[in-house]
Each structure stands twice: as C-alpha cells, then as structure tokens.
Automatic annotation (TrEMBL), chain A:
Keywords: Heme, Iron, Membrane, Metal-binding, Oxidoreductase, Peroxidase, Transmembrane, Transmembrane helix. This is Catalase-related peroxidase. The chain crosses the membrane at residues 15-39. Its cofactor is heme.
TrEMBL record, chain B:
The chain crosses the membrane at residues 12-34, 46-63, 90-112, 142-164. Belongs to the cytochrome b561 family. It is found in: Cell membrane. Residues 7-174 form the Cytochrome b561 bacterial/Ni-hydrogenase domain. This is Cytochrome b. Its cofactor is heme b. It comes from the Bacteria. SUPFAM superfamilies: Transmembrane di-heme cytochromes (SSF81342). It is a multi-pass membrane protein. Gene3D superfamilies: Transmembrane di-heme cytochromes, Chain C. Keywords: Cell membrane, Electron transport, Heme, Iron, Membrane, Metal-binding, Transmembrane, Transmembrane helix, Transport. Pfam families: Ni_hydr_CYTB (PF01292).
C-alpha cells in the first residue's frame, strides 16, 4: 500500500491530493471548534452566567444557581375555559391538572435571610392528564430589570461584591444604569411596588411575553400573573426572622389550601413583546384562565421540585415563545444550572423536612 | 488486484443522507449548547426530532446491512488496516445508535418532555433520576466528540482511497465511473 501511495504521489498533482486528504478533516475540525465557541471566549454562553452567579454569590454545589433558597409545593390547577378562545392548550379547558411548584427567593445564596423587600418567586409545573405540560417561573416584581441576556450578565456582574468592602461597587452599578435608563426605570418600579406580608398573599408576574395560539392558529401576545385569593396585607412591623417568609408559608399550608387566579393580560398591537422592562398599559383586557390551588409543602430535600428545572420554554401546544429574547436565554441557562447541580452533592436545604413537618413552628 | 463491488443503492442513499444529518447534528448540538440567543430554542426543537430520525434510520440501515454482503476491501490494504476499517464501521454504527439513545435517555432522566414535531412527544425511556441525568448529559458530549473524531478519521481514510490510492473503495460508496456497477 505504501508503495502504491509513493507511486501515486510522484504523479502530477499527487502532493496536492495528499494535502486535500489532510486538509478536509482539518477544516471540518476547525469549523467545529469555531462553532463550539472555543475560539471566542467573549461569546455569551450558559457558562458565562454560571461564572456571573458565582461572582455574586460564591459556590453552592447542589443548589440552583439562582433562586437557590426555596421550598417545594404541590396541588392542582382548574382551567376555567375562559382562555380557550385564545389558546388551544388542553389545561385551559374545564379540567384539572396536577401541579408541582416551588416558592423561592431570588439570588444564588441558599441560606440568605428572609426580608420583606427581597424578590419572591413562584415556579410551577402543570401536568394535564391529556396534553403536554407547562412550566413557568414567575416573580413578584412589576417588570424585569433588563432587556436581554447580555444586559443581564453585565448587570449581574456590576452587582458582584468587590474584594475589600464585600459590597457591590456603586460606581460600577451607576455606570451600568447611566447606559441603561430602562433598568433605572425598572428598579424604580421595583422599589415602589406594594410589598405584601408573605408568599401566600403575593402576586407573581410572568414579566416575559408569550403567544397564545388558538385552534384556528391565531396567535395573541400575552403576559400573565398569579393573583392571590388570600387577603393582601402589608408586611407586619417587626418581622424579619431568618426564615420568616417560608415559616409563614408552611404555617398557612398546614392550616389549609392556598389559591391564586391565573390572570392573563391580552396584548394589543403595539404593546412591546420583545422588551420585558416595558409594562403594558393598565387598561388591557384580563382573562381569568383558572384557579391554582396549593395544598402541600415539602422540603427540597426529598421534595418533587428539586429534580426538575422550571424551564420557561417547556410549553404545551397552544402556548409559544414571542420575540422576547429572555425566555430562550433562560431555557439555555436553566439547563446548564440543572445539569451542574444534578451532578453535585447537595448539603441540606435551609428549609428542612423537619421544618416542614412542624408546619413552620 | 481483486476488484470490489459497490454497496447497493439503498446502502449508498442511507450512507450519504445520514452523513449529512449526523454532521449537521454535531454542529447544531455544539452551537446550541454554547448560545443563549433565540437560536437556542429553535435549534433544540430541531435537534430532538432530527436525532430521533437518525436513530430510526440507523436501525433501518443496520437491518439492511445484514441483507447484503458488503464489498470486500481491496487486498492491497494490509490486513491490519482492513481490520481497522471494519472496526471503525462498527464503532460508527454503535455511536449512531447510542448517541440519540443517550439524548433521549438523558431528557427522560431529567424529567424533560421529549418533544418532537406538532406537539407530539415520546415517552421516557429511563426513570426520573437526576444523578443519571448529569451522567448522561456528560456522556452525550463525550460521545459527540468521539463520533466527530471517528467521522474525521473516516473522512480522511475515504479521501485517501479516493484521491491517493485511487482504488475501488471510494466508488463503492459513490458512483462508478463509466456507470459500471
Ligand atoms: C437572562 C435572564 C435570567 C437568567 C440568566 C436566569 C437564571 C436563573 C437560573 C440559573 C435559575 C436556576 C434554575 C435551576 O437550576 O433550575 C433561575 C431560577 C429562576 N428564575 Fe431566572 N433567570 C433569568 C430571568 C428570569 C425572569 C425574567 C424570571 C421571571 C419572570 C425568572 C424567574 C425565575 C424563577 C421563578 C426561578 C426559580 C425556579 C425554581 O424555583 O426552581 N428568571 N433563574
Ligand atoms: C457522519 C458521517 C459518516 C458516517 C456516520 C459514515 C459511516 C459509514 C459506515 C458505517 C460505513 C460502512 C458501510 C455501511 O455499513 O454503510 C461507511 C462506508 C464508507 N464511507 Fe462513510 N460515513 C460518514 C461520512 C463519510 C464521508 C464524509 C465520506 C467521504 C468523503 C465517506 C465515505 C465512505 C466510503 C468510501 C465508504 C465505503 C468503505 C468501504 O468500502 O468499506 N463517509 N461509512
Ligand atoms: C446522532 C444524534 C445526535 C447527535 C450527533 C447529537 C449531538 C449533540 C451535541 C454535539 C451536543 C452538544 C454537546 C455539548 O457541547 O456539550 C448535544 C446536546 C444536546 N442534545 Fe444531542 N445529539 C444527538 C441526538 C440527540 C437526541 C435524540 C436528543 C433528544 C431527544 C438530544 C438532545 C440533546 C440535548 C437536550 C442537548 C443539550 C442542550 C443543552 O445543553 O442545553 N440529542 N447533542
């Protein structure tokens, strides 16, 4: 064979042919490396966000990289039928879907102390008997703080504690806000929001815009909120124990069910869908799509919310992404956070099975 | 030199169709896993059904492979290289089947819906188990890199046959000059 190679190489163009044999695989390999981003360290990837969260909150193996402190809940959702003209998703019909959820505080520290002004979240997984599931993660703030993934990364890094003070550098945050009036405005709305006394009487907003698609294939832009049936009260003065928000939730669930209405806001032409920092006009039509009932709390340790991720692009037929760039970024980053934490050994969660058993006492 | 016959047309069509699909999947996969742009969602939605299509085609191709006698490699090749060629083909078959199964299995273990097209989804093939999910997620990357490495070696070898050795191996998978079968 070697003799044959030698002979053919001496022919005209032989060397060129041999070069092609080497060059073709090398070119494919180079294209692969470039596609993977290994040559462009500045490309925004899920790994960038893992580094960002690490810079702000440090390493907490086994925990979610954001919204790390939380507790599992479960219950069901009863569709009212009122959203079916807008979306063909089965769960909006007059039927019951089982739900697994998670209440949490924003931030990557799994044992941060509770405080009235901290951002609270509710994550939900709807599992209709017939039809595809729906997952969401929704927050108790009126608008999101940034327009896209790049700004999220920059803003997160700007809030990272600096060595020496252990506090964020105000100059760095100021520089970001000067360049991003929409974030400045969103922070103003966030600070001005009416706080409630706990998780149970709080309203959680989708912030991101999605499309509802009906049986005729007509798509309507929507945002939504989980609005509590529990009486809204302001934070009680003097509260502020390490886990008081979670303990109150456990107490409430030990006493009975908690309910929320899924209120869908119907967008109109011209309403910004690609910008989650921009609120929609207050007078938009709202549809009561159904009732969420939560009956049970469980610790993350052994609970049903730990081994899943509430990827906001796990959508049933009838709900679709809009041109909002944030959900795709979340989907990619949650998948990385989920894969990493799933391979790590997790220390006990702040809200332990014992705390749940005692009903937050 | 003993002349080799060609692969039957069914094998050649499957070979080139799947070569294009697998190369596309390697690039789609490695790009989507390194982006947070809107393409992420679009590409993952494409990646799942295309991967399952590769699995189905690979099974058809494997069954088809038992229906004909593959052309012999020319005896100008040293026996050790003929063995290596055969072994690399076995490895390619194993990876073409294992990689999509690992993709499907990892989504099952992570309790993700395995969504195909038009709202249809596949049932899980593994129990919900996050440790297993983490392991399979790593395995999916490493099998992809191995698949790429073997494909590149395979491509180099095919070009060596076609351009330098100019024996009957390359035409056995393409078309024979002069239309001779
Ligand atoms: C680009 C922007 C964002 C990034 C990079 C990001 C990142 C993350 C990460 C890494 C997690 C942990 C996921 C896991 O391990 O399962 C998480 C959880 C969460 N995020 Fe985001 N997030 C973003 C935007 C948002 C927005 C706009 C909302 C609300 C509308 C939101 C609500 C939530 C909620 C509720 C959770 C907790 C889910 C749970 O309890 O398991 N995030 N986020
Ligand atoms: C993802 C890419 C590819 C895969 C998975 C693949 C797989 C295979 C397999 C399994 C065989 C054995 C025959 C069979 O059972 O079908 C084969 C044969 C062959 N392939 Fe590929 N192939 C790929 C790409 C290529 C490329 C890019 C070329 C050429 C430029 C090529 C050229 C050949 C040739 C010439 C043969 C015949 C070898 C013989 O006679 O034994 N293949 N390929
Ligand atoms: C021949 C078939 C397949 C090939 C060549 C392939 C290739 C790849 C590659 C190269 C990656 C990126 C790995 C990394 O950079 O870490 C990837 C990721 C992935 N693949 Fe596949 N894959 C195949 C089949 C499948 C199937 C059948 C599924 C599911 C049904 C699947 C689901 C995924 C998922 C979910 C990811 C990870 C996305 C993320 O990290 O966010 N793959 N695949």
């Amino acid at each position: 064979m070697l003799a044959l190679i030698r002979k053919n190489l001496t022919e005209k163009g032989g060397a060129l042919r041999l070069a092609a044999v080497v060059a073709a695989p090398a070119a494919v390999a180079a294209a692969f490396v470039a596609t993977a981003g290994w040559l462009s360290p500045d490309r925004l990837t899920p790994a960038t966000f893992m580094r960002d969260f690490h810079a702000v909150d440090g390493a907490h193996p086994g925990f979610r990289r954001n919204h790390a402190k939380g507790v599992c809940v479960s219950g069901w959702f009863d569709g009212s039928g009122a959203a079916t003209p807008l979306s063909r998703a089965a769960l909006f019909g007059k039927e019951r879907s089982q739900v697994v959820g998670r209440f949490a505080l924003a931030g990557g520290a799994p044992n941060q102390p509770d405080a009235p002004g901290k951002v609270r979240s509710l994550a939900l997984r709807f599992m209709p008997t017939n039809g595809a599931e729906w997952r969401m993660g929704i927050n108790d703030i009126p608008v999101f703080l940034v327009r896209n993934a790049a700004d999220f990364s920059d803003f997160t890094l700007a809030t990272a504690p600096v060595p020496g003070t252990g506090q964020p550098d105000p100059a760095r945050i100021g520089a970001f806000l000067d360049k991003h009036p929409e974030t400045k405005n969103a922070l103003g709305l966030l600070k001005a929001r009416a706080l409630t006394s706990g998780f149970a009487n709080d309203t959680y907003n989708s912030l991101d815009a999605f499309l509802f698609v009906n049986a005729e294939g007509v798509a309507t832009p929507v945002r939504w909120a989980m609005v509590p049936e529990q009486a809204v009260e302001p934070p009680a003065a003097g509260e502020g124990g390490q886990d008081y928000l979670f303990d109150d939730l456990l107490k409430a669930l030990a006493q009975g069910q908690l309910r929320w209405r899924l209120m869908v806001t119907v967008g109109e032409p011209g309403d910004p869908t690609a910008d989650p920092t921009a609120a929609w006009p207050e007078q938009r039509r709202k549809i009561d799509a159904g009732t969420l009932t939560l009956t049970k709390a469980e610790s993350e340790d052994g609970g049903p919310c730990t081994g899943i991720t509430f990827d906001p692009l796990i959508l049933p037929e009838g709900v679709a992404p809009s041109d909002d760039p944030i959900p795709a970024a979340r989907s990619a980053v949650y998948s990385r956070s989920f894969a990493l934490r799933s391979g790590e050994t997790k220390p006990p969660s702040e809200i332990t099975p014992a705390a749940v058993r005692s009903g937050g006492q | 030199m003993r002349s080799v016959e060609s692969f039957p047309i069914s094998a050649r069509v499957l070979h080139w169709l799947m070569a294009a699909m697998i190369l596309a999947m390697l690039f789609i996969g490695v790009f989507m896993a390194a982006t947070v742009g809107p393409a992420y969602h679009t590409l993952v939605d494409l990646h799942r059904p295309l991967g399952i299509a590769i699995l189905l085609l690979a099974l058809v191709r494997l069954a088809n492979r038992f229906l004909f006698r593959a052309p012999q490699l020319p005896d100008t090749l040293p026996p050790v290289l003929r063995l290596a060629a055969r072994a690399s083909h076995v490895v390619l078959y194993v990876l073409m089947i294992a990689q999509p199964l690992v993709g499907w299995g990892m989504l099952s273990a992570g309790a993700y819906p395995v969504t195909m097209w038009g709202g249809a989804s596949l049932p899980p093939i593994l129990p919900h188990d996050t440790e297993l999910f983490a392991t399979l997620r790593h395995l999916h990357s490493w099998l992809a890199f191995s698949l790429l490495a073997v494909v590149l070696a395979h491509l180099g070898a095919a070009l060596l046959h076609g351009l330098v050795l100019r024996d009957d191996v390359f035409p056995s998978m393409t078309v024979r000059r002069g239309g001779k079968k």
